[in-house]
UniProtKB/TrEMBL annotation:
Organism of derivation: Alicyclobacillus hesperidum
Keyword Lipoprotein: yes
A Gene Ontology biological process term: spore germination
Source lineage: Bacteria, Bacillati, Bacillota, Bacilli, Bacillales
Name assigned to this protein: Germination protein, Ger(X)C family
Spore germination protein N-terminal domain ranges (all copies): 30-207
Domain Spore germination GerAC-like C-terminal: 218-381
């Protein structure tokens, strides 16, 4: 009896610990089978003529799941790997709610890869959409925000061969371009950071359909706060890249003198760094941008010889090309009154007190800023393949032995 009396409190303590541990264990009360979910890969948002919101969703077709073994084709043969459906409502929430009511199985949004805004919707303001995607916990912050001048439904229904899934193919297109210009990778987290920054000028990749009906990157859409104001072409994107200082592996192509056959010199920028200086002077603000870049020669014009003189000329030509590209991009941004080059953010980081003085009138002051653009390109790796013994022989007409002597 005494022994049982001693063990009774210990048993009680053990029982209490087991009960408390049971409450702390994670459970699967909301578990759902994959077959009972509609996996959403992409969402398209546009505005209708009666000012309602049209939402296009790209779902994975469970009856036709592509695999690497069959090259993306399905076991059912004629079935498409994705299903594209469209709903209209007074808001994004209302339209997505209709998917839940009208399509079998629940809608699963956590795997969404991209959100494609129609140009009409983007120009009228995307503040409600940004608020929705930030509040809804079902979405991940690494989904891409894109804009299209074409029909949202047409873009999400277009073929992106050899990728069987449309959304995955479009995302790959954007990620490929982001290896050169990082700002093209317009993920939700990055867009929101630019939207809430002092400049309030986010950038989104612009996706359109080419003549063959395939999605391609056509540039970037630039925003003033939540309203789209203009677009930059693929060539103009390079200038914005130099202004922002986020470039790598960018190719500069310059035509040959007196040649109209399309040949030219190609110089690849391996990496660059843009230094920003803001100098207030009697109420006027002047900005100095200096780009330091390392480059290599990919292609020379025919019949040109690479020597010290030519190398200096190529350095000057590449520097001038970068300066020209920066000035053209900046001129367009100042005409649009949109600080996509993030001058406001840089001034805030460099001089917070001065930014507090100019921030109330920044939108009207930005187009009047005097900006000086300078670039310094240093070509490296010039002798890897251009001055080999074989190339020297072919240019001089001498034998290898004569060159060695």
């Amino acid at each position: 009896m005494m022994r049982e009396a001693r063990w009774a409190p210990r048993r009680a303590v053990v029982i209490v610990k087991v009960v408390l541990s049971a409450f702390l264990l994670p459970g699967c009360y909301d578990i759902r089978e994959v077959d009972d979910m509609n996996l959403v890969l992409a969402l398209g948002i546009d505005e209708t003529r009666d000012h309602h919101v049209s939402v296009t969703a790209e779902f994975v077709n469970p009856a036709s799941t592509p695999s690497s073994s069959d090259g993306g084709s399905s076991s059912s043969g004629s079935r498409q790997p994705v299903i594209v459906r469209q709903e209209t409502g007074i808001s994004i929430e209302d339209a997505i709610g209709k998917f839940e009511r009208e399509i079998p199985h629940s809608v699963y949004l956590a795997q969404n890869m991209l959100v494609l805004f129609g140009e009409t919707y983007a120009r009228n303001g995307i503040d409600r959409a940004l608020d929705y995607f930030e509040r809804d916990r079902a979405f991940r912050r690494n989904q891409l925000f894109l804009v299209t001048p074409d029909s949202v439904t047409d873009v999400l229904s277009a073929s992106v061969d050899p990728e069987p899934l449309n959304a995955l193919g479009i995302r790959e297109l954007v990620e490929q371009s982001s290896t050169e210009l990082r700002f093209v990778q317009s993920e939700q987290q990055h867009v929101m950071e630019e939207y809430l920054s002092p400049s309030q000028a986010p950038v989104m990749a612009l996706i359109g359909l080419n003549q063959s009906g395939h999605p391609v990157l056509q540039g970037v859409a630039i925003f003033r706060a939540d309203h789209m104001v203009d677009t930059l072409s693929v060539d103009e994107m390079q200038g914005l890249g130099w202004l922002l200082g986020r470039t790598r592996q960018v190719a500069l192509r310059m035509p040959c003198t007196g040649a109209g056959d399309g040949t030219g010199t190609t110089i690849r920028i391996l990496g660059s760094k843009t230094r920003f200086y803001a100098r207030p002077d009697r109420g006027n603000l002047s900005v100095h941008l200096h780009v330091d870049a390392r480059a290599e020669i990919e292609q020379l014009c025919p019949h040109e010889k690479l020597d010290d003189v030519k190398l200096k000329q190529l350095n000057i030509m590449a520097s001038s090309e970068i300066e020209r590209s920066m000035r053209n991009a900046l001129l367009k941004l100042q005409e649009d009154d949109v600080d996509v080059c993030q001058f406001g953010k840089r001034i805030f980081l460099q001089s917070p007190d001065y930014w507090r003085k100019v921030s109330p009138t920044w939108l009207s002051s930005f187009p009047k800023i005097s900006v000086e653009c300078r670039a310094n390109v240093q070509i490296v790796r010039a002798n890897l393949s251009l001055n080999t013994p074989e190339s020297t022989v072919s240019r001089s007409g001498k034998t290898t032995a004569e060159v060695a002597q």
